[in-house]
Write a structure and sequence with these properties.
By secondary structure, the chain is mostly helical. It has one domain. It is built from 8 helices and no strands.
């Protein structure tokens, strides 16, 4: 569990960095046009949120070279060749294909930000709306130990998902520059990938411990 919390903390730190998007290298005058019109409680039933998260999960599962994604996303500028490399590393066949995904996701996120003011909430507050059922999640069979492992895993995945969501929302200010926006979202994706990989790693350890305990008895 300590490793899980460390993972969540590291993603939170990345989120904080991404929220401070204005720096000496990239200066953007952001017009604060977001006007929250919906209650955060309505977010779970919003089909746009479901579409955004579904596409995000599909992308994470399709990544072919996470280390290259992380390396390229950390660069100040990306050449045409590097944009192609980044796209292929993310599982797309070309930058053109990735750009279609990128534009669709950023449109969904901007509309959600406008309606809900996502950047006004913490990852925990959003998580409590989107994944509140995970707090009482119980394994379907397998005993109390396995049930506890599943609950920890689901909670970890939920928290890392919403932490990444707030990080992506923090990238909105950079989206008009295209390249900087792509890099910003790339950093958020890489952080989410590694954080959720650790969620899976800790869950595997937990299940092995359950099995070892039964064998000892």
């Amino acid at each position: 569990m300590k490793n899980i919390f460390k993972t969540l903390l590291s993603l939170s730190i990345v989120t904080g960095v991404l929220f401070s998007c204005e720096n000496e290298k990239v200066k953007i005058k952001e017009e604060n046009s977001f006007s929250q019109t919906l209650s955060l409680e309505e977010l779970q039933e919003d089909i746009r949120m479901e579409e955004y998260l579904s596409s995000n999960t599909e992308l994470l599962h399709g990544i072919t070279d996470i280390n290259r994604v992380q390396k390229l996303s950390s660069k100040e500028n990306l050449s045409t060749i590097e944009l192609e490399q980044l796209s292929i590393s993310l599982g797309f066949d070309s930058f053109k294909s990735y750009n279609i995904y990128y534009k669709n996701q950023t449109t969904l996120l901007k509309n959600l930000e406008k309606d809900y003011g996502l950047t006004n909430y913490t990852a925990t507050e959003i998580n409590n709306v989107l994944f509140y059922e995970n707090l009482n999640y119980a394994s379907r069979g397998g005993g109390a130990c396995e049930g506890s492992c599943w609950r920890s895993f689901k909670n970890c995945m939920g928290l890392t998902t919403t932490a990444a969501l707030t990080a992506h929302a923090g990238c909105i200010a950079l989206d008009p520059t295209i390249i900087a926006g792509i890099a910003c979202h790339g950093i958020a994706l890489a952080a989410q990938y590694f954080a959720q990989d650790e969620c899976s790693n800790q869950a595997s350890k937990c299940f092995r411990k359950c099995s070892d305990t039964r064998h000892d008895n």
